[in-house]
């Protein structure tokens, strides 16, 4: 066993013990449905801010997005991290956090489908929203497993990737099933601290690598970069140093919009606002989460930008997904301090992935246990039964996403490509307009959800028939952005030509903004 493997195992054991302890401690505070799903609406600023940030960034961002876009686009890819921090985080908190907290508390809504039902008095909308969450978010969690599994496999080449996926699944299940949202809030706080410390150390280490030469050396060396013969992704120094992404400008813009504005309609992100305890916590949380996202988001894409220099322009075996693992091994693989830091970075990426995974699983499980099953049965389900069912479904969904990730089921892989854009594209219009306007009708909100589905569905069908499904999957960012835009436009337009039949009920709901 190498030193890198030994230190990584020690760090993993310490981390796993801490997560299990938090789950056990949180169990007593999550015996009610409110406690399990939204922490009793009493979560503080630091925990909520870090929960938002760690759910935003997973190993998929580091391994997939940062590795791919940093390698292909260069310096311009850092704009994705900037957009995520200020559009996906800061603007979301400023516009929606306080209104979401107040309205969901007034409605006693615990989930996004629950919010739709009570805001628009529509059980059908609740069922449709729950189905969309289940179909597209559970497969999305499989991508989290795959991203992290490839990282650990770089350190432990003799161990199958599925083994690391299984470890991730078991760790997540222990504290999520035991402690629910309270446990995830506490663990997210620890995970966030680890992520911040790890990214800062990693940036320092990478910038001081001989092939990079600091910030000034990075720009100069990228400007003089020439692709090696046989490079499957040839590029030029002018492309890599173009601040606006050069030939990838359009692609860059769509990815910024999808990954930034997409958070405005994702239930696993919006759910953090349900749980925060008061306005003061929101003000502090806004600042904390934005700083967190600036460091993590920009740090990830800066790391990706240095990859061609660190690796000498040679794409590692395994392709784009192996870029960041290869950079880590190159930069941190030698010397005791580097090996220790490598172990810390692996825990950083484990933390990022687990926080995203737990948010997605809790959202998916609650959509079925709390929203879908009671609505289909058309009879009230006891709170104790919903609690038990939610815990069981959390475990089942972790298992399902693990199986999907290990089997590479074609339809599941395809759903991953569309998950972020289609979920946000369906929910963003009804969710946002429902917070701000009394004039939004049930018909208008329903139209927003359906239009989001149709935009992606019809576009996928047309492109697939003409150019093949692989081309359609590559266009998923554009489809997601289009779905969000259409949803935001359709909801008020349809509402303008339809009427609310329960104006008094709507007026009563909006009194929440006059309350503390």
Descriptive account of the structure:
The chain is mostly helical. It has a single domain (3-20, 53-514), classed as Sodium/glucose cotransporter (Up-down Bundle), CATH 1.20.1730.10. The chain has 22 helices and no strands. Helix 7 (123-155) packs antiparallel against helix 16 and helix 15 (323-332) packs antiparallel against helix 16. The radius of gyration is 22 Å and the shape is globular. The chain starts with a helix and ends in a 7-residue tail after the last helix. The mean pLDDT is 83.
Beta strand %: under 5%
Radius of gyration, in angstroms, nearest whole number: 22 Å
| CATH architectural group | Up-down Bundle
- Average of pLDDT: 83
Number of strands: 0
- Please tell me the total number of domains: 1
The coarse silhouette is: globular
The number of helical elements comes to: 22
Could you say which structural class the secondary elements and strand pairing correspond to? mainly alpha
Examine the coordinates and then state which fold CATH places here, giving the name of the CATH topology: Sodium/glucose cotransporter
The description of the largest β-sheet is: none
CATH class: Mainly Alpha
Residue share in helix: over 70%
| The CATH fourth-level homologous superfamily | Sodium/glucose cotransporter
Low-confidence stretches: none
The topology string of helices and strands comes to HHHHHHHHHHHHHHHHHHHHHH
